[in-house]
Amino acid sequence: MKALRPWIALAVAGAVLVCGAAFNLRRSSLLPLTHALPVRVVAHEWWWEFDYPTLGIKTSEALHLPSHQTVRLELQSGDVIHSFWIDGMRKPIDLPPGKTQRLDLDVKSPGELRGNCDAGCGCGTVCMRFRVVASTPKDFNSWVARQRTAPSRITAHNTTPPACALDKSVDHRESPQPSRPDTPPIRELH
After folding, report:
1. Which of 16, 23, 55, 67 has its CA 20 to 30 A from that of 151?
2. H or E element: which one contains 114?
3. How far is Cα 170 from Cα 142, in angstroms, rounded to an integer?
4. Architecture, CATH, for domain 37-169+183-189
């Protein structure tokens, strides 16, 4: 039995090291990304709000992102259950009212992606499509400068179904189209 004590001690020390390393990896993934650009995304019936709090910009036109920089999206719903999806994501992210979901993205190159609400949140779901515009850092900074001098891009929305939801020529059962080959690669960071 005395001959086994050093081996048992070595095994216990190894287990402690492995557990400690795993804990440090998990803890570091929970730390805030200090270099990430924060963007608050709020889903409404039946439109999206994109708020860049550190830049003083709010828009409902498109989600603009700089390429080659991590972006932290804080996703929320302002009313009913919505679901956030962008070309290249593994799966949509459900957005129940009152809960904030976080998604860290790293867009590798400039280009344009499509996004939408994938939840079937009402007759206006079809109107919840949006563009994701990934720009070079220089072009993104130019967009920021233009937004700061332009009037707010948030338009008044009401709770009646938008015209696009009432248009009988639109197939409301349409599923998202597959990614085009020219769309920039997007990577979800976890």
Report:
1. 67
2. strand 111-117
3. 35
4. Sandwich (2.60)
167: pLDDT confidence band, cut at 50, 70 and 90? very low
- pTM of the predicted model as reported, rounded to 2 decimal places: 0.68
Structure-token pair, residue 175: 């599923």
- Domain positions in the chain are 37-169+183-189
How many Å from the N-terminal Cα to the C-terminal Cα in the chain?
A: 46
Q: Choose among 162, 168, 169, 99: nearest CA to 129.
A: 162
Is the backbone peptide bond immediately before 143 cis, with ω within 30 degrees of 0?
no
Q: Are 164 and 125 in contact (CB under 8 A)?
A: no
**Residues shown for the chain:** 190
Q: What is the DSSP letter of 40?
A: E
In this predicted structure, the answer to whether residue 169 has a pLDDT above a threshold of 50 is no
Amino acid at 64: H
pLDDT at 27: 38
Tokens 């020529």 sit on residue: 169
Judge whether 126 and 172 are in contact, CB under 8 Å. yes
Q: For the sheet with 93-95, list strands across it.
A: 62-66, 130-135, 111-117, 82-86, 93-95
Q: What is the dihedral of CA 24, 27, 31, 33, to 10 degrees?
A: 60
Strand partners, 52: 57
CA-to-CA distance for 175 and 172, rounded, in angstroms? 9
Whether the pLDDT of residue 143 is over 90: the answer is: yes
